Amino acid sequence: MKLNWIKVDGLFARFNHMIELKEDGLTIVHSPNGLGKSTLVKMVCLAFNGDWEELDMIPFHRLEFGFDEGRKLVFLKDEVMEVTLLDSGNMIPMTKEEVTELHSVYYLGPQRLFIEESEGRYVSALDAYSRRIGDTYAEFISMAEGLWVSSEDETLSEGFAPDPHSKLHEVKARIKMAENAGLMPEIIDESIVAEILDNEPSHWSKSQLKGLYRLSKVADALYPLAESAVALLDIINPMLFRKKLSFDSHDGFNVILDEGKVIKLSKLSSGEKQLLLLLYTMMFEATPGGLVIIDEPEISLHITWQQCIASLFLSIGRTRDLQVIMATHSPQVVHDRWDLTVELVV
């Protein structure tokens, strides 16, 4: 379900704003200071993530969300806040749980370098995400190892790979992607992989087909994570100066200088931290089909990075089926994409 527009009436008892989301998937919201731009985008997060007590503390009269197929979600604030879904002429009262299931919203505010790990305890967001991607890598590698071992005793079905040559090329591409992502299980010897993938016989023996089958199970299991990891690395590494990012199951994020020295995440520049955080969360944390809201994406970014951030978000948004709203004061973020802007006015 796609979000088409957001409307608020009576914000701070002064402002009525309307944001129509752009069809390209990225909407850039800008306005003079004091018109409630940051408050409005935060309200979207509070509404869909169930933080209605905090939402109720913000002065407003009515908050509406328009979806495709004519559906509309309304937060009406009087003495008690009422939440209703209007669908095909029906007025359906909604609970927090029902609204959170209705649409996924991921919010990145200006203080995004730190996240609340437990009540009142804040930690580095990059350190937390580094542990998370490391755990995810470990899970995928363990799954692939299990498939490699269990498939050894499986009987090869007659229907496997009616065109072994085409299957070989597909498996070779996916294994190469897994290797580039640092995902290949150590249990699978490189010589075994080379023996299967670097030889394309004119006539396939049962043994050769079995090896291709086993490797295809591993390649298919690793592909979803490998594709996302390689996409992120391909974007961010050309932007880093004299250093390179990689992932593994032990350390999560690895930052390696050109001379080979591994450095801590804390040694990255403030702009590099912001860039890594923005791109990683869009690629791995946001829910496909949902909405990502980024307030002040320009924080600590050099002008050249600000000018390319819109195109990067558009690309990732298309890849992961995301709608993105950026709230910004920077004309450099808009750059040459004024067609994607919505201005809030008095």
Describe this structure in words.
There is one protein chain. The strands form 4 sheets. A 6-stranded antiparallel β-sheet has the order 2-1-4-5-6-7, covered by helices on one side. A 5-stranded parallel β-sheet has the order 8-14-15-3-16, sandwiched between helices. The chain has a 3-stranded antiparallel β-sheet with strand order 11-12-13. 42% of the residues lie in helices and 24% in strands. With 346 residues, it is α/β, with parallel strands linked by helices. Strand 14, helix 9 and strand 15 form a beta-alpha-beta unit. It is globular and about 75 Å long. The chain has 10 helices and 16 strands. It folds into 2 domains: 159 residues, P-loop containing nucleotide triphosphate hydrolases (Rossmann fold); 162 residues, no CATH class.
